[in-house]
């Protein structure tokens, strides 16, 4: 357990956030009638937001439901590309900024 906590404490918080976000999206049920939302516009009572539906669309895309994903939010694929590129960049930075010797 101490080995895991030491390993996690050396990881950048942003890297943990993005990997956790992808795991949460994979576990999300996009067909659920209710969902938890952190959208500030939704919390304020606005009906429309440019990002709403993106998480469910990404979940549909991960499950292979491409048409439903596109219909819900067409930028789901782009969001995957951006998040995965950021994760790769953070891992590269982690390898170059730590002294393993």
Which SSEs are present, and which pair or pack?
Elements: H1 2-10, H2 13-27, H3 40-43, H4 54-62, H5 66-72, H6 76-97
Helix pairs in contact: 2-6, 4-5, 4-6
How would you describe the overall organization of this protein?
- The radius of gyration is 17 Å and the shape is elongated.
- The chain has helices at about 1-10, 15-25, 40-45, 55-60, 65-70, 75-95.
- The mean pLDDT is about 85.
- The longest helix is centred in the C-terminal third of the chain and has 22 residues, at about 75-95.
- It is built from 6 helices and no strands.
- The two termini are about 25 Å apart.
- The chain is mainly alpha-helical.
What is the average of the pLDDT values?
A: 86
Provide the succession of SSEs: HHHHHH
Count helical runs: 6
- The number of E-state strands comes to 0
SS-based class: mainly alpha
Radius of gyration from CA coordinates:
17 Å
Model regions low in confidence, pLDDT < 50 over at least 5 residues: none
Biggest pleated sheet: none
End-to-end Cα distance, whole Å, is 24 Å
Instruction: Based on Cα principal axes, name the global outline.
Output: elongated
User: Approximately what portion of the residues adopt beta-strand conformation?
Assistant: under 5%
Estimated helix fraction: 55-70%
Concise structural overview:
The protein has 101 residues and is mainly α. It contains 6 helices and no strands. Helices cover 65% and strands 0% of the residues.
